[in-house]
Amino acid sequence: xxxxxxxxxxxxxxxxxxxxxxxxxxxxxxxxxxxxxxxxxxxxxxxxxxxxxxxxxxxxxxxxxxxxxxxxxxxxxxxxxxxxxxxxxxxxxxxxxxxxxxxxxxxxxxxxxxxxxxxxxxxxxx
Amino acid sequence: xxxxxxxxxxxxxxxxxxxxxxxxxxxxxxxxxxxxxxxxxxxxxxxxxxxxxxxxxxxxxxxxxxxxxxxxxxxxxxxxxxxxxxxxxxxxxxxxxxxxxxxxxxxxxxxxxxxxxxxxxxxxxxxxxxxxxxxxxxxxxxxxxxxxxxxxxxxxxxxxxxxxxxxxxxxxxxxxxxxxxxxxxxxxxxxxxxxxxxxxxxxxxxxxxxxxxxxxxxxxxxxxxxxxxxxxxxxxxxxxxxxxxxxxxxxxxxxxxxxxxxxxxxxxxxxxxxxxxxxxxxxxxxxxxxxxxxxxxxxxxxxxxxxxxxxxxxxxxxxxxxxxxxxxxxxxxxxxxxxxxxxxxxxxxxxxxxxxxxxxxxxxxxxxxxxxxxxxxxxxxxxxxxxxxxxxxxxxxxxxxxxxxxxxxxxxxxxxxxxxxxxxxxxxxxxxxxxxxxxxxxxxxxxxxxxxxxxxxxxxxxxxxxxxxxxxxxxxxxxxxxxxxxxxxxxxxxxxxxxxxxxxxxxxxxxxxxxxxxxxxxxxxxxxxxxxxxxxxxxxxxxxxxxxxxxxxxxxxx
Amino acid sequence: xxxxxxxxxxxxxxxxxxxxxxxxxxxxxxxxxxxxxxxxxxxxxxxxxxxxxxxxxxxxxxxxxxxxxxxxxxxxxxxxxxxxxxxxxxxxxxxxxxxxxxxxxxxxxxxxxxxxxxxxxxxxxxxxxxxxxxxxxxxxxxxxxxxxxxxxxxxxxxxxxxxxxxxxxxxxxxxxxxxxxxxxxxxxxxxxxxxxxxxxxxxxxxxxxxxxxxxxxxxxxxxxxxxxxxxxxxxxxxxxxxxxxxxxxxxxxxxxxxxxxxxxxxxxxxxxxxxxxxxxxxxxxxxxxxxxxxxxxxxxxxxxxxxxxxxxxxxxxxxxxxxxxxxxxxxxxxxxxxxxxxxxxxxxxxxxxxxxxxxxxxxxxxxxxxxxxxxxxxxxxxxxxxxxxxxxxxxxxxxxxxxxxxxxxxxxxxxxxxxxxxxxxxxxx
Lengths: 126, 558, 429
What we know:
C: nine-stranded mixed sheet
């Protein structure tokens, strides 16, 4: 299956903020379990309308929904901060307390698997 | 609860008691004339004084906390673990609130004035005071770089200014009016500064006008304390002229109870010379003025050689210091009201200017003849942390101690300072005045039971294990650093230099009565300022009662 | 009943002009707030009752039993971690710090995964800053750097920066220049005059280039830095010098990215140096409505702003060693108490794995990923809606949160106070 290399960034979105304190809801999953990509990257992955992607870094992998955002330059993937993003970010703080939330190397590939729910994510770390 | 402090050598200058062997009786939280079945404290041969009153120390609020945050390296000095009664302590020049309370109490101090609160941030200051154990306290509100103030100064509407001052003091639960580099912080909003006769950009008033009008409003409201001023031009060579001009703004005014201007940390304002190269002491000129005038009192702002953290509402000054040292610098301008800055500073004995600064503070205390006019301060932590007071006192009491220090500092002190020629040594009565009686009177707190041991006074007492005849500086210092007993509100809080009780302090605030048309008109103007320019709503501005769990309200009438 | 001048307990902009309609102790309408504020104040799913996990399942219990179980866990641990604090009152912070001191625990705050690096930078070089009203009245150049405030602080621009008319900015938006520096064309860019796109992880060299140009050393700057042409950088420096009052607001785009605190040191240094030319200030865009408050309280009570370790009795501060993520990554803590935050959602997987292994207590109004791992769950009232108390806005202005409806649950402060009492009881004090 087709894969692309990206720089992965995590951050805030209003939608994710609206449901920040309502994380067990479907709305939060819809807002936060997404990966924003440039349409060129999406096309290269062979996704037409919508589809899921597997985002993989040295530190883990997670399935989220691909979403076109052309304000995102090609080669940059954006996942809202939250439990999905945190499956793949670099936990090393470099001695300053802060893990590496933005700018990891990652690989994004088309996926036919479903997006894990929060309960599933939490079961998985237990 | 009754206490009998027996056979102490008592210094109580407000009651003209000077080194008399006598007993002091305490019932509950007050001094009384006799007691029935007291706990007896043997004070035989020991010094007994009222609890210390600090007129000016930056102990709580936005600036000191920004200083703590800026300097974890200072926080790591003087750490002490949690005790049975006490919370963990950190810091030297920027101690945490607990260390502040305990260390003052151990030195026999029971009241501290936090002297520079931006009204918008007053809630923060009160929050920290809640967490500062033992000490009674109060705050002064910065009202001089304030747009409302400057507009009323310009229009000459002194009654509306008085109405505004009254409203603000009540709203932020303050005790009095603070002036810091009047006009300078407004100019600093554009990266500029002003001196006493310069026009403040966009407001068309001079610092001189601001000082005069605020003094008039202050006296109109009959506040217990006078205006409390940090003059323009702080820290610059040749600034003594600005200082004398500032004192002169309100000459001729008087008040039967007290001065009409208290000028703070005058050490930083007594400089001669035209540059750092010919920087010199001009204390002779300052002392000549203060010695003959009645309207002004001052405090020292003593510098001690060593590392400290400077912090003031004088924004441009702190930026200037940062450009000299290149050390880290924090600035906090406060909308419509004031500013502030923080930078670390090392007063080095190898640097001529710093050595002369050290001499200047002592010169002020020694050349001003009447100790009722000069209060002992270090402008904590600007000149030095308050914990150095015992050393300052030993220097004032011992010429030999001064000479020991002078032998090891920059030689410029011999040419550009006056200290080497001064022989005067202060005695315990002078010290009791400068650290208790005078600050209480200057603040107007003597009328509310502070600074003396007369019947009816607050039972705030310090007992030091040192003979009144002691001359050795080291012994004086260690006795003053760790009181034999400190009694606060009738409760023994320090015994043998250790904390034995941690009552919560009380906050004094003034409720000035001033109603009528000027107040109504002023409220209209104020509402406009909030609607257009403030970033918080008027309804959320006044400090709620929850922030003064132990308030002492002082009502004043016109 | 209409309640005015209500504070919004969501983001660090701490808007205090919200109007709330209450009927029968229920909020029926929220006006003036942004979507996120409205959503929070209108309310959503709550934890209804205290719970304790038994054989894998959370079982309902009483406050008394949950508090007792919490005390038992804490007293039996050697190295407890106490974490959270950004969505509750300063009064709760005080209780939490006292508990940490009593337990010899490590207490840390969500700042360590948002603006912790900014605090480290301030400790290096300081912070020339001001209150937000100063910017509203004076600023004519506003730069958002690595901060998508349109998504994270939606009313920041309309209340404090680009749009309002101030005393010296009567023209409002027209008289102000707004520049956005970011790696993506965020929604903030839509209301800006200029967008400068920096390559990911290249903020540090871009800031260095600006400092070099400002110092008159443009000769050493290459023709393109971090994806930005030299000409644009020179233009930006000129703009900064020409401003009467300039400000940089920076966000996690600097703290989360390569260089972390070093990026912020560079940004603050640039602003320091600009003060030789004009008035310039800088401010971190603090996220949660009271993250600043925790740093304030922790600083005056312990001397240090976050990541404070009490295991030696006196406070020991060393982020990287004493910060929550590091302690979890090293598998060091043997229990954790989480208050008003959700580390299971916001920490890296590796940290969450250890959180899942140790006894975990959660105090929060809402079910969230942390609850899925928690052994004790204690529901709390919502600060700023059901509880009053102090919060500090991102510019360190303290304002009192209002209570608009009566709570059905205890406040964080009350719960922590009860835990503290129980801990002392169990330790025979």
